[in-house]
UniProtKB/TrEMBL annotation:
Identification of the protein by name: IS3 family transposase
Domain Integrase catalytic: 287-450
Highest taxon of source: Bacteria
Pfam families xref list: HTH_21, HTH_28, rve, rve_2
Source organism per UniProt: Undibacterium flavidum
Length: 452
């Protein structure tokens, strides 16, 4: 029908892909068989606009044999093979198979158009170039092997890139795979690549793999720390192993490996109200300490697991970022704070009189808390009201804890979470390196020689 032009087919296909009508609806609209529309859509999805254009093609005997070989090797139906090779008439395959079984490759040769010579015409001796010498079994097997190689190349090409144009690097990769089964000269001929080009691309791929060992080391460090390290900490960890490497190289390799540190979500906050007396802000955002037990910070954070809450109260030493004491409880009672303080006091020598900084939470305004600090000679410091930056060091630890531990895992009970917090704080103090501590963990930094 004249209406079934390429433009009309394309219009119907696009209307099916973009609109609400299905095959039956479009068939009624345009007076078409819905199977015809289904076939057009299948051709378009498989081969694009070329799939629905009219074709006037004479297929060579070699192409026909390659189609049959692919059909047999992959156990395809006639319809699947037709869609794969963009052949409109799937019934033609039965004819090709019959011809091939009767006369081999010669029987698949395309016939010339026009009237056939009459049988009564005198038979003349064919010229030398017109003589058709039947292929031997060896030649036929060689031809079949060549077609199998072409088919294997096309399959690998489609699986590797899926693009019409393929780079020399990708082709060299395919050649390297196929030469394990076929002679390299034959593979290069099928691929259409010079031998020198292949060996150049192959050498380049080996040079690019010079970071194979360091990639394994990066992944091992990343997995060991459960994705908590970015490229800076990974670089520091590698340097600790005695290998010098630029952080930009680590960053590039981590990007190639798809390794990325976690993004910190926003932290939970709650307002506790004003109870008791507030202390002055002695710390004044000076978060540097020249020695241990000089400046401490503390706060309380909340976790929610299966409808139950767990509270954590730690003390962090600003000298090395170490958690020197912590306590957990299911309710934010003062006993949790008192237990934590008693743990921290055990680390003090008679000469130690640190500043203990906190926010203006109700726990830190209580008389019992302030009396405990005074009994040990500690100076109390508090953030200004509503200013979380005054206690940024403690807030930073909570963000790291929740990002690297809490949000990465699923917990069925607060008891499981409580045990996990204990294990993470041990890891944080002893194993997790910090760049500002010269690539050492808090405990390693505290235990290093004074002249280091």
């Amino acid at each position: 029908m004249t209406k079934n032009t390429d433009e009309f087919k394309y219009q119907v296909v696009q209307e099916y892909l973009d609109g609400p009508l299905g095959y039956s609806g479009l068939g009624e609209k345009y007076d078409l068989n819905h199977e015809t529309i289904r076939r057009w859509v299948g051709w378009y999805r498989a081969h694009g606009i070329e799939g629905i254009r009219k074709k006037f093609t004479h297929y060579s005997a070699e192409f026909k044999l390659s189609v049959l070989t692919h059909l047999w090797d992959n156990a395809l139906s006639y319809g699947q093979a037709a869609a794969h090779f963009n052949i409109r008439n799937s019934g033609i395959f039965a004819q090709w198979i019959r011809l091939y079984r009767e006369g081999g490759l010669d029987a698949l040769q395309p016939r010339r158009k026009g009237r056939h010579r009459s049988m009564s015409a005198p038979i003349t001796k064919p010229s030398e170039d017109q003589e058709q010498i039947p292929l031997s079994q060896e030649a036929l097997l060689k031809e079949l092997n060549h077609l199998r190689l072409e088919n294997a190349y096309l399959k690998k090409l489609q699986a590797l890139s899926g693009k019409a144009e393929t780079s020399a690097r990708e082709k060299a990769q395919i050649v390297d795979e196929l030469r394990q089964q076929y002679p390299i000269a034959q593979v290069l001929e099928v691929v259409g690549m010079a031998r020198s080009t292949f060996y150049y691309q192959h050498k380049q791929s080996l040079l690019e793999d010079k970071h194979a060992v360091i990639k394994q080391r990066i992944r091992a460090i990343y997995d060991k720390h459960h994705g908590r390290y970015g490229y800076r900490r990974v670089t520091a960890a590698i340097r600790q192993l005695g290998e010098l490497i630029n952080h930009k190289t680590v960053q590039r390799l981590m990007k190639l490996l798809g390794l990325k540190s976690l993004v910190r979500p926003k932290k939970y906050r709650s307002f506790q109200g004003n109870i008791g007396l507030a202390a002055p802000n002695l710390l004044q955002r000076d978060f540097k300490a020249s020695e241990a037990n000089q400046k401490w910070v503390t706060d309380v954070t909340e976790f929610n697991v299966a409808g139950e809450k767990l509270y954590l109260s730690p003390i962090l030493d600003l000298f090395n970022g170490e958690i020197i004491a912590f306590e957990t409880a299911k309710r934010p009672v003062y006993k949790m704070i008192d237990t934590m303080l008693n743990q921290a006091f055990k680390r003090l020598s008679p000469k130690d009189k640190p500043i203990l900084h906190s926010d203006q939470g109700w726990q830190y305004r209580m008389h019992a808390y302030q009396a405990s600090l005074q009994s040990k000679g500690l100076m109390q410091s508090m953030s200004r009201k509503g200013n979380c930056l005054d206690n940024a060091a403690m807030e930073s630890f909570f963000a790291v804890l929740k990002t690297e531990f809490f949000y990465l895992n699923q917990f069925t009970s607060v008891e499981q979470l409580e045990q996990g917090i204990k294990e993470y704080i041990r890891y944080y103090n002893q194993d997790r390196i910090k760049l500002k501590l010269k690539g050492l963990s808090p405990v390693q930094y505290r235990n290093q020689p004074l002249n280091a």
